[in-house]
Amino acid sequence: MIEVQGIRLDPETRRTWRGDEEVVLSRKEFDLVHALMARAGQIVSREELMRDVWNTTFWTSSKTIDVHLGWVRRKLGDDSRHPHLITTIRGQGLRFETADLRAPDPGA
């Protein structure tokens, strides 16, 4: 079981929850979330995601990841304009954040 920011993912049963509510993901959506959550806090390049999730070394479409990411964000409650779970690092890839970026800084 992997848990980050209240999102739980069970790779064995291929089930996902947000809090106590189960979130139904397609096979590719699950694989995308798993690839990111397994490396939470690290940037995962688009090339790595295409290889690990789509099992390809070539780009079938430059929008494949973006389309699936949009569906995943909606299902997990992550606002694409102000994401707190999955952030896009321009020119580098995607990162599943280990802490809510919207939370106020207690040291501020």
Structure description:
- With 108 residues, the protein is α+β, with helices and mostly antiparallel strands.
- It has one domain: Orthogonal Bundle (Arc Repressor Mutant, subunit A), CATH 1.10.10.
- The protein has 3 helices and 7 strands, in the order E-E-E-E-H-E-H-H-E-E.
- A 4-stranded antiparallel β-sheet has the order 1-2-3-4, covered by helices on one side.
- Helix 1 (27-37) packs across helix 2 (46-54) and helix 1 (27-37) packs across helix 3.
- The protein is globular, with a radius of gyration of 14 Å.
- The N and C termini lie far apart (34 Å).
- The model has no long low-confidence stretch (mean pLDDT 90).
Notable characteristics:
4-stranded antiparallel beta sheet, 108 residues, 22% strand, WH-like_DNA-bd_sf, alpha+beta, single chain, Arc Repressor Mutant, subunit A
Provide a brief overview of the structure:
By secondary structure, the chain is α+β, with helices and mostly antiparallel strands.
Largest β sheet strand count, sense and barrel closure: 4 strands, antiparallel
Number of domain modules: 1
- Low-confidence regions: none
What integer is the average pLDDT?
90
Tell me the total number of β-strands. Answer: 7
Global structural class: alpha+beta
Structural Rg: 14 Å
CATH class: Mainly Alpha
Sketch the topology as an H/E string, one letter per element. Answer: EEEEHEHHEE
